[in-house]
Amino acid sequence: MLFWHVGATTAFIRYAFRDPAMDLRFLALGAVLPDLIDLPIGIVSWDRFGSVRLASHSILFGALLLIAVLALTRRGRRRKQWMMVSVGVMLHLVLDAMWNQPETLWWPFLGSDFTGTLFPTYGAYVRDLVTNPLLWAGEVVGAAYLVRLARASGLASGDARKTFLRTGAVSAPIGRG
How do the domains of the chain map onto residue ranges? Predict the structure, then answer.
């Protein structure tokens, strides 16, 4: 769910923080980081875990990432950038409704197992994802927001794109994009 995570996270955090200089590149990385880590492991180890939501989908992962950012950075631009990764990871857990998978969300505090799915194979899991209208609705909503934000920020312009690629900031007013 790439567009859902990046779009919904960006919309929520832009509205909540209202920081026009916020580095959305780092936020987007955090929004997808749990899937980037857990998905390959879950695919390869489906017979063992029965899920693609593993340790990176736990509060412990988000907390350790936040602690690492605080310990390894000083106040200023770099810390703000890397804090956005932590914020994106934590919001990823909310957008995945991880409270419905408590063994994974609270791993390892509720035991060493992760919450499995009801699917016997990874293929069955993928078939369900591909045919799930709720998943596709989320992708459409996330993509629509990102397109709207890109248009409102003038990212069709080379200068606006260069600014975004260099700073991660967009020019769209926060209340409108």
Answer: 2-167
